[in-house]
Amino acid sequence: MSEYLEYSIESDALILGERIKGGIFRPSSKTLRWSTISMALRKWTEYNNLHATGVLTSYESDYFIYSPMERVSETSKIPLQVEVLNNIEGKVYILKNDNIKLPDKFEIYLGALISKGFGKCHLKFINKIENVKIKKGILNTRIPCEYTDIFSIKNVIKPVYGYLFETISDTDGVYVKSLFEGSEVAGPIFLLKGGQNG
Amino acid sequence: MAKDELVPEIHDILKLTSKQKINGNEAVNLHSHPELVLNFLKDNKTWEGVCKHHHGENFHTFPDTNYLFILDIADNLAAATSRAFRIGKDEKYSTDDFVFKLWKNDVSDVEEQRKLRSLNLNEIVDFVAQNPDWEEYNNKYGKKLLQQAEDAKLGNNITSLYTHSKLTGQFYRILERSNFLVPEKDLTDREKITEIYKDAVKNWKLLFFNVKLNFPQKSFRTRDINVLKIREKILNKIKEKYFDNVLFHTSDEILMIFNNEQILNQIKGFIEPYGFWLEIIKSNPPLSGLKSSPSLIKGKKYYNEYLNLKDKILPPICEICQMHPAKQYDNLLDGEKELVTDDKSGIIENLCESCINIRKYGESLKELAKWTDTGVIWIKIKLDLSKLVEILEKLYIKYLKNLNIKNPEERAEIRYSVINEFQWDYDKFLKQFHKRLHKIFDNENEKSVEDVLENLYCVKIDRLKDIETILKFYNSLIDDFFPRFKNVTESPIKLVISESHVKFPFFEHWKHLNNPENDVDIKLVGKGVMKIRLNQLDDLLFLKLGKKTALYKLSKIAEISKELAYMEIVSKEGRVEHPDLQEAIFKKRFEIHDILTFVKIKGG
Question: Which residue ranges make up each domain of chain B?
Fold first, then answer.
């Protein structure tokens, strides 16, 4: 049975941009996807086999307008409206691996527009989860199908599929079929809707 | 249909006649005594169906052929109430020929012994003798069929003869096509038939599906909103092709009965070119176990069906659906290249085959495409089918209790006939909403309403106050069509409004429009939300908001801080300046953010 390190995560402002067709509005994901948190932690730990996912327990939604400047011509393009999540609280679940040593408290940067001051997150160790409680419910995060075992998803009852981006090198990556939030599964209670306090 | 075939829809035509004296005997209801008129027409299968579709002990005729036996079963499947819980069996009852609509009527609307049966027997016999089909029957007597209850006994009178007749026809043909057969030699006496009937409804099984058509496309441009039109087209195709099998439908889901699973493969064929996916509830009950929804049947299966998903996709992924690899530009046909190239910037979009197919459908939202710098509201009326069944059951229990009928909880089962009856009023309600919306917002020179679906609109607005106008006429339509939904904790019909600048992306509106959190759910993007119950709508619309200046000040404060605005209302000064708002919050239990959003709507 897999074991997990449970961390709390807090941030003042995050932009967890959804991939969308080039428009002038960028919505934010309302969950901590496997791809967002795992890739950030892999970069932080320099350990490429790290797996983590997370959930947001509270946040406020706001909009931020900015206009990216083209450096050569020094002109601004059409302003983009970006959805920002403020006052975020959540939990991160990291698959326990003896090769990774994480401090009890540390900071990482997640999401977009980090250069504009967004994305700073504080992580604080809460607990080691050894006996995972499995329950039927609605998934509250996004996990690649090939890693559902790792995250103790025992049964996928009603999947909602989508694709997450997995980097395979500094310049390359692939989209992997994934279970999205809203899927009905039998899985760890802490990854289910309403299960973070259970 | 051949002229001399049995027309199952006509089986209850004798219910349209008043009590008649035949051969000088006492006047009787001929529907209960078909033996008295059986010989009035010879060699007419429909007339045989009229006279021989019951096998109960009070009847002197019974179904003696396979087709009549199937009609007997179809008649019971299409009844408002199940045979087991029928009111009137060994107990006293009163009658009212008018339909009692659970969503509309109150028990004070009931008039005991009220009659509608006005047709003359000769007229009926002459009519059936001409071998009419369902359309001719409907054209001639449709109005009467809609008004009159299928069963006039109070407590049973919750569906019309129209719905019952139509559904009987549908079930009859489903059973006929399923090749459910009994040896005709056994259909010789009532006792035998009763046994065969019990056996048939216990052992004959049908597949009962609830299929919801979902799409993964995150539509940004108006031409990509075609995805909704395409889904509507597919649903209409299913309704037309499987007319008999569809029991109920909304703008995204469909309730169907079949004898084999081939239909699902056909639906998959319809959706495959567009990359849609299906949310399915499937059950396989015996005829006696059919309920209003497959979700209520023991052994049901819930599952989602996606088509042709790959485990891994190398970039680029489709920018709209993000579920399939984008087609290489060089591999596109000439017409397709234009569809993925932006006219103004020349930027090429990476789209998959399915999303290109959706673009091929063309620009169907002509008005919306013209609007460039204006405020708009998206309006969706959403019907929650499982909530509908739950609420109708509660209203039915209440009705039976008011009639002092025993065991109302046990008897108040909502069958598909009631759901089907509801569909009739729901469709009329949507048409009225459409009519009023256009009347208010369109004028001779300019169209301000874009019809997207029968329950989805985009309206160009000049001011937020226009939303109040919509709330007012929605409220009056609810009073006309579904007033009883104001007496329940949650309405199955939701009004969702999402307001923004026209450039705000549709898929963000869609997330809100598709997942309302209350009966009336309004979002002013970046300005506020209002989520209230339907039974609060009257109070809200009659709310006195006080002086305009005080209100303006309040809305300005709310823009800076909701907490400050709250303090402003509940403070000592608030008692003077906003007495009605204080009452709304403390006595009528409105949330402060709902009130503040409404203040913005009223003042905008």
Answer: 8-203, 207-305, 369-542
